[in-house]
């Protein structure tokens, strides 16, 4: 901080600096500004994945170093995990969650966003309120909903008033997955709606005006203007939702717990990992399972990026050059845009 | 392809459209149908949360006998006993420390590295961006087991620092994705003007970039704070000592220890969610604004 202020204070001195001096200085700036972030990121995000790959080859209880206190077992952990029926079930459940959340949330989120994109009094308040579930933590959502959904809980009492005999929402394996999908949708739909709203608001009003002049009705406009132009936002949301679903842990672990989740048929890859890894003290095995989850997520993410998302999100690992080109183009565009904006402001 | 192009063009004209928009006169009342569906939506979203809050005002027998009822009569004992318990305040303190430290760390480091990626033209900038945006694909879950061992080997297990550092690292990708487009959209002319006036690159960063990127910074800061406030998995692994617990762990422990005392659990739970809710409600507009900026890119 001190150097920065110093630099600002002595402008004359800097202007006479030679070119090579400027370049060295620039490199130092780059280093100082980016080193802390990169260091932290490498240490806590990248290193654990590498370590995990290494630990995954050992049968190891987590004390000392695996090569001394553990036993090298090669790919045995991976084979055991992939052959374990309860891990297979967990993978299946995870993919049910991935697909289920997309199918339930996408249409609802678009409809709700359309609704809240109308201009009317009180819209701001409603927008804030629908975000409430997203802001409340998984632990609290889990605690609250598991009370509501008990066999003799509030939901079933309300249903009883209508003469419906409510099921055992949480423990019945036939219903538990459905319940989980409901909880997930309730918790995360606010985020989807806000994202879609943001996307809708960047659609220029002129398009709708033109369509109205041409005599298009409300739904026709939504179908031929809003939906196509919302596609980039939708693609990003699908990506975020899929990645989130693949990692699903908190809600299941809190509502169903370690063991019930398996019997109720809602265990996920992550709950299996925690139960068999840290829960059982088998850190080598847990790391192997983590790596399997990592690879599954990576393959899905990269495939999605390559075939679907690459138009929207640059910086994709798969194609840097094109991304670079696009960044340059976009920066140029942004500059022009900003200039126009400032110009109109001056007016 | 065509849709993408149209989308890009739409972004171009966004500013003018928006400017025309905001000046427009009073918002009208909506159609009754709009209100009806909005209210249904709001009811679905808010009722379970209200159930937790109201449940704290009831007694256990009220809850057992009539789960879906309202408090009758209202009792404040549950809230009072949570307010007077040390454990709640300790956990609130821990959550606040971790949340604020994570937020500051993420924002400071994030804006520094975003500035490098967005404004310095050098060979590795796209690579750095790719590195961090790849991190977005891997939330903590996939690395949690080795991450925990690493934290333990660094001697940070059971300490708040053992939460803060990894949370900063995992918060960076999101922050960078949101901030880089913000910083790229600062016009070059501004930087040139600044340089002509005798500013250095860093001077430009300090005097122009930081103030100009405040909307993005606010968005990422609040999202990070709320994320940290609600974090469950990392504290579950790292913290073993009750005096170090953050609120989510506290809520879970409290609800398993007092499993018969439902009303008390509900009171504890609703007080634990309040700070994040308030913080979010206050800054809600800023978040949506910031997201709009990020998503359009």
TrEMBL record, chain A:
<feature type="transmembrane region" description="Helical">
    <location>
        <begin position="283"/>
        <end position="304"/>
    </location>
</feature>
<comment type="similarity">
    <text>Belongs to the binding-protein-dependent transport system permease family.</text>
</comment>
<keyword id="KW-1133">Transmembrane helix</keyword>
<dbReference type="GO" id="GO:0055085">
    <property type="term" value="P:transmembrane transport"/>
</dbReference>
<keyword id="KW-0472">Membrane</keyword>
<dbReference type="InterPro" id="IPR035906">
    <property type="entry name" value="MetI-like_sf"/>
</dbReference>
<keyword id="KW-0812">Transmembrane</keyword>
<feature type="transmembrane region" description="Helical">
    <location>
        <begin position="175"/>
        <end position="198"/>
    </location>
</feature>
<keyword id="KW-0813">Transport</keyword>
<feature type="transmembrane region" description="Helical">
    <location>
        <begin position="90"/>
        <end position="116"/>
    </location>
</feature>
<dbReference type="InterPro" id="IPR051393">
    <property type="entry name" value="ABC_transporter_permease"/>
</dbReference>
<protein>
    <submittedName>
        <fullName>Sugar ABC transporter permease</fullName>
    </submittedName>
</protein>
<keyword id="KW-1003">Cell membrane</keyword>
<feature type="transmembrane region" description="Helical">
    <location>
        <begin position="236"/>
        <end position="256"/>
    </location>
</feature>
<feature type="domain" description="ABC transmembrane type-1">
    <location>
        <begin position="91"/>
        <end position="304"/>
    </location>
</feature>
<dbReference type="Pfam" id="PF00528">
    <property type="entry name" value="BPD_transp_1"/>
</dbReference>
<feature type="transmembrane region" description="Helical">
    <location>
        <begin position="128"/>
        <end position="148"/>
    </location>
</feature>
<feature type="transmembrane region" description="Helical">
    <location>
        <begin position="30"/>
        <end position="57"/>
    </location>
</feature>
<feature type="compositionally biased region" description="Polar residues">
    <location>
        <begin position="1"/>
        <end position="10"/>
    </location>
</feature>
<dbReference type="GO" id="GO:0005886">
    <property type="term" value="C:plasma membrane"/>
</dbReference>
<feature type="region of interest" description="Disordered">
    <location>
        <begin position="1"/>
        <end position="20"/>
    </location>
</feature>
<dbReference type="InterPro" id="IPR000515">
    <property type="entry name" value="MetI-like"/>
</dbReference>
TrEMBL record, chain B:
<keyword id="KW-0812">Transmembrane</keyword>
<protein>
    <submittedName>
        <fullName>Putative binding protein-dependent transporter</fullName>
    </submittedName>
</protein>
<dbReference type="GO" id="GO:0005886">
    <property type="term" value="C:plasma membrane"/>
</dbReference>
<dbReference type="Pfam" id="PF00528">
    <property type="entry name" value="BPD_transp_1"/>
</dbReference>
<dbReference type="GO" id="GO:0055085">
    <property type="term" value="P:transmembrane transport"/>
</dbReference>
<feature type="transmembrane region" description="Helical">
    <location>
        <begin position="263"/>
        <end position="283"/>
    </location>
</feature>
<keyword id="KW-0472">Membrane</keyword>
<dbReference type="InterPro" id="IPR000515">
    <property type="entry name" value="MetI-like"/>
</dbReference>
<feature type="domain" description="ABC transmembrane type-1">
    <location>
        <begin position="92"/>
        <end position="283"/>
    </location>
</feature>
<feature type="transmembrane region" description="Helical">
    <location>
        <begin position="97"/>
        <end position="117"/>
    </location>
</feature>
<dbReference type="InterPro" id="IPR035906">
    <property type="entry name" value="MetI-like_sf"/>
</dbReference>
<keyword id="KW-0813">Transport</keyword>
<feature type="transmembrane region" description="Helical">
    <location>
        <begin position="129"/>
        <end position="151"/>
    </location>
</feature>
<feature type="transmembrane region" description="Helical">
    <location>
        <begin position="163"/>
        <end position="183"/>
    </location>
</feature>
<feature type="transmembrane region" description="Helical">
    <location>
        <begin position="204"/>
        <end position="229"/>
    </location>
</feature>
<keyword id="KW-1133">Transmembrane helix</keyword>
<keyword id="KW-1003">Cell membrane</keyword>
<feature type="transmembrane region" description="Helical">
    <location>
        <begin position="33"/>
        <end position="54"/>
    </location>
</feature>
<comment type="similarity">
    <text>Belongs to the binding-protein-dependent transport system permease family.</text>
</comment>
